[in-house]
Design a protein that fits this description.
2 domains; binds manganese (II) ion; single chain; Fructose-1,6-Bisphosphatase, Chain A, domain 1; alpha+beta; binds 6-O-phosphono-beta-D-fructofuranose
């Protein structure tokens, strides 16, 4: 089906999913329209008003917000008013926003991922997961976001990079649609991506080496030891610093992404957020034949099984090539001292 449009792809999906297909498709098309708009802001770079610098306000995590974060959030929030979304749970807003009590879906969103790269002309993106509403969204808005990632009906991200693209799964594989200005549409470019099981490439912010657990350090030490070390092969390292870009590379050519917990204040569970970062990316990884785990002492809990306790909670995240993730789990596991 490569070459077909997102709209055509979703029509087929909706036809085979009578329960949620139509509504989820509508939401995805609404997100895609909005992403085109956000891409315009990104494209203007320093010439646009959205790059006026730090705005002074802070997000739920205490990070200083750039104008573009706020703009992207405002745009996606507005776009979701026009589609069947009851609740909007965003990285940029402390509590879920009720949009329409009578609708049946909740969207968890990181409106602008990779914010440290906004000013540097490096790929950034918008990550989202679509969940069924649980109970009355007006009474208990938080509940809909406290479902395991396996409950996501669809998830993915837009990447504002050399190409504007949508990486998405509606539960039947992971696909990439690249935006074509000529056709004014997202066109299916990679159908049913398959992450190679084996890899010799990892991504981690190694500047935190001194803050990691001994187990995490040993995994990287052994990778660095190369062909004459215990792993008996040389590893390459890549770290863009935008989850959307690092995930794209892993989906295309394999590799592993690791953001473990560390000893810095506030980093016991790493940096990535479970509900609107780890869960969408984990669904994409698994649907592409890869793995996604919580890389803590327990060793290898599947991310998609974890029941969130809070919309903004963090999780030590590792995902990518399944054989390498299994190897990492052995280093982290209880039996490895
Ligand atoms: O949203 C968090 C994020 O910006 C991710 O996109 C990225 O993977 C990570 O933070 C980078 O973290 P650090 O700056 O600590 O390397
Ligand atoms: Mn992010």
């Amino acid at each position: 089906m490569t070459g077909s449009s997102l709209a055509a792809f979703l029509e087929e999906y909706a036809a085979s999913n009578p329960k949620d297909g139509e509504a989820v498709s509508e939401i995805l098309l609404g997100l895609a329209k909005c992403a085109e708009q956000v891409r315009d802001y990104v494209n203007q770079g320093a010439l646009g008003s959205a790059f006026a610098g730090a705005k002074g306000s802070t997000n739920a995590d205490g990070d200083t917000q750039k104008e573009l974060d706020v703009l992207a959030d405002d745009n996606f929030l507005d776009a979701m008013r026009a589609v069947p979304v009851a609740l909007y749970g965003s990285e940029e807003i402390n509590n879920p926003v009720l949009l329409d009590r009578n609708k049946k879906y909740a969207i968890a969103i990181d409106p602008l991922d990779g914010s440290s790269n906004i000013d540097t002309n490096v790929s950034i993106g918008t990550i989202f997961g679509i969940l069924p509403v649980i109970g009355d969204p007006a009474e208990h808005p938080e509940n809909s976001f406290l479902q395991p990632g396996s409950s996501q009906l669809a998830a993915g991200y837009f990447i504002y990079g050399p190409q504007l693209a949508l990486v998405v799964s509606v539960g039947n594989g992971t696909h990439i649609f690249v935006y074509s200005a000529r056709s004014n549409a997202f066109i299916l470019a990679y159908e049913n991506l398959k992450i190679p099981q084996q890899t010799s490439e990892y991504g981690i912010n190694a500047s935190n080496y001194n803050e990691w657990s001994d187990k995490q350090r040993r995994y990287i030490d052994d990778c660095l030891a190369g062909a004459s070390g215990p792993r008996q092969k040389k590893f390459n390292m890549r770290w863009v610093g935008s989850l959307v870009a690092d995930a794209y590379r892993i989906l295309i050519r394999g590799g592993v992404f690791i953001y473990p917990g560390d000893k810095r204040k506030g980093y016991a569970n790493g940096r990535l957020r479970l509900v609107y970062e780890a869960n969408p990316v984990s669904l994409l990884a698994e649907q592409a034949g890869g793995a996604a785990v919580c890389c803590d002492e327990e060793g290898g809990r599947r991310i998609l099984d974890i029941i969130p306790t809070e919309l903004h909670q963090r999780i030590p995240l590792a995902f990518g090539s399944s054989a390498e993730i299994a190897c990492l789990e052995q280093y982290h596991g209880k039996n490895n001292t």
